[in-house]
Specification:
368 residues; mainly alpha; Citrate Synthase, domain 1; Cytochrome p450-Terp, domain 2; three-stranded antiparallel β-sheet; binds coenzyme A
Length: 368
């Protein structure tokens, strides 16, 4: 292999083709629909349908899709029993990884044809929300709650998590984050999922791989890490002093920077505008001041912009959700994008198997 092909981290490499999403410096689109348009004029169910089936649903397709989500939402008793056995201190991402794998043994969809694969993706989307909600209930020494007919997917996750019907603002904001998180082209977890598909393995294995990859703080784990950073501060002044110290120590600041976007993340702009309104509504300006005390020097002094995980962490915090749940909520959304990529890879497959540059010892022999 020649050195000009050597790209650590695959930076700048076009590693495949996709019709699911396009990520450009100035735009993000899911199957041709701009993210701003989707954020303003659709909901998570529509976006999930768009990703899994390729088109926004007609009204009849929307009814069928939401009915399918509803049908798959109740967890089998075996899953609840397994959840009860997991120690309380286990991070929710690890719980979700194990439970999705376990749920695979109770997969209600039979067959592996194109229709079954898409149906399985809908089942996984539904099941992830129910697992996260049930885990939260059990952690709080409460029993899992049955889904309530008529709620949206976001509303359902909140209802099953908190045990009471959520207000409109909370539902809309969770829905917005689910839209924004649903898909992002060849990011690390999606690429990992596509590798699983390329070996002709199964969709559940692909999603477990996606979860395992998303967990890291350089990827989806950043929404939790960003909020863990913010909760240390009781004032904007304290945050301002901390960030200067972080600069001096050349420390990474979670929720900032992106491999592709170098001038800002469209999703962060969209969510931040809503977060500012939420903070006013909840009388939580203090948190926006702390948020800005980190963001302003990052942007002005370092020229590093926030990514979607930065406003998302604080959004979930102001919705009263525990930090441990933030990356699992990312999964509840991204499971749709992973599934779309898995299906795309499986339907036009070539085994993903790159090369490496050898840097080990020169040839030697066992008997010298
Ligand atoms: C996402 C991320 C891994 C992208 O990294 P990348 O494309 O490899 O970018 P680089 O590491 O090459 O960054 C270029 C420069 O910006 C700095 N930088 C990038 N993100 C930074 C951050 N969050 N905080 C501080 N400095 C950062 C790097 O240290 C590097 O500086 P240097 O040239 O002096 O060494 C990186 O920005 C990061 O670690 N961010 C924090 C985690 C996060 O929010 N992840 C969610 C991504 S959606």
């Amino acid at each position: 292999m020649t050195d000009e092909n050597f790209r650590p981290g695959l930076e700048g490499v076009i590693a495949g083709e996709t019709a699911v999403a396009s990520v450009e410096q100035t735009s993000l689109a899911y199957r041709g629909y701009d993210i701003q348009d989707l954020a303003e004029n659709s909901n998570f169910e529509d976006v999930a349908h768009l990703l899994i089936y390729g088109e926004l649903p007609t009204s009849q397709q929307r009814s069928e899709f939401t009915a399918l989500l509803a049908q798959f939402r109740p967890l089998p008793t075996e899953l609840i029993s397994a959840l009860r056995m997991i120690p309380a201190g286990v991070p929710m991402m690890d719980v979700l990884r194990s439970m999705v794998s376990f749920a695979g043994h109770f997969d209600p969809v039979e067959g592996d044809g194109p229709d079954e694969l898409r149906r399985r993706a809908v089942w996984l989307t539904s099941v992830c929300g129910s697992i996260v909600a049930a885990r939260l209930r059990l952690l709080n020494n409460q029993e899992p709650v049955d889904p309530k007919p008529g709620l949206s997917h976001a509303g359902q996750i909140l209802y099953q998590s908190l045990g009471e019907e959520p207000d409109e603002t909370s539902t809309r904001l969770l829905d917005l984050t689910l839209i924004l998180y649903a898909e992002h082209e060849f990011n690390a977890s999606t690429f990992a999922t596509r590798i699983v598909a390329s070996t002709m393995s199964d969709l559940v294995s692909g999603i477990v791989t996606g979860i395992s990859t998303l967990k890291g703080p350089l990827h989806g784990g950043a929404n939790e890490a960003a909020m863990e950073m913010l909760v240390q501060f009781d004032s904007a002044e304290a945050a301002g002093a901390w960030i200067q110290d972080a600069f001096a120590k050349k420390q990474k600041v979670m929720g900032f920077g992106h491999r592709v976007y170098k001038n800002g993340d469209h999703r962060a702009h969209i969510l931040e505008a809503e977060l500012r309104k939420l903070a006013v509504q909840k009388n939580q300006q203090k948190w926006m001041d702390i948020y800005d005390a980190i963001k302003t020097p990052m942007v002005e002094q370092k020229k590093i912009m926030p990514n979607v995980d930065y406003p998302c962490g604080l959004t979930y915090y102001l919705l009263g959700l525990p930090i441990d749940m933030y990356t699992p909520l990312f999964v509840c959304s991204r499971v749709t994008g992973w599934s779309a990529h898995f299906i795309e890879q499986a339907e036009n497959n070539r085994l993903i198997r790159p090369l490496s540059r050898y840097s080990g010892p020169a040839p030697r022999t066992v008997k010298s």
